[in-house]
Amino acid sequence: MPPTTAELIGEQDLGALIAHRDISLSGRVAPQYVARHELRTALIGRASDERVDEVVLVADELIGNAVEHSKGPDSLSLDIYERGAAVGVADLSNDPDALSSAAGCAIESTDGPVDYEKLPEGGRGLFLVGLLSTAWSVYPAENGKLVMAVFVLVGGDD
Fold first, then answer.
1. What is the domain range of residue 89?
2. Which residue has the higher pLDDT, 79 or 71?
3. Model confidence over 88-143: pLDDT tens digits?
């Protein structure tokens, strides 16, 4: 069973929860635009511009996956902690094959350079999620599944 959000956050010692936002993406024509705007607004001044860009890119990938491989994104959740953030994208697909496929697509980086040409075309987005986030997981949610990415924003990882 993949780690829960609480377990992912606990492993990273992000500090106390400062703020929480739930953003509905259901039925939005441009869910990625809404997510980018909300994330940038919420994270401004909490991390370097480069690190905020990485959080936004990961959210873009997760929402894009929900658009392409499910009935679409339902919501975006953002938890801001003293030293980090957790971004979750819930979608409306509870397809168990999608859960196992997503969990299996995490491509571990090696000590050497990654040959992007050898990555499966369908798994490149999740490769970026794994590379840019501190940790990530996918698990069943009430009406579908939740993909959660955790980021250390200050300290040794920024």
1. 5-108+116-152
2. 79
3. 999 988 765 655 555 555 444 444 455 555 555 555 788 889 899 999 988 888 78
Written as one string, the DSSP assignment of 86-144 is: EEEEEES---HHHHHHHHHT-----SS---GGGS-GGGHHHHHHHHHSSEEEEEEETTE
How far apart, in whole angstroms, are the C-alpha atoms of residue 101 and residue 65? Answer: 12
Helix 49-69 with 31-43: angle, nearest 10 deg: 150
pTM score: 0.82
In a domain, 34, yes or no: yes
Residues forming beta bridges with residue 137, ordered by sequence position: 148
* Helix 124-132 with 49-69: angle, nearest 10 deg: 150
H/E stretch holding 17 reads strand 17-24
The neighbour count for residue 153, using CB atoms within 10 Å, is 22
CATH number, domain at 53? 3.30.565.10
Q: What do you get for the CA distance between the two ends of the chain, in Å?
A: 29
In a domain, 157, yes or no: no
The whole-chain average pLDDT of the chain stands at 82
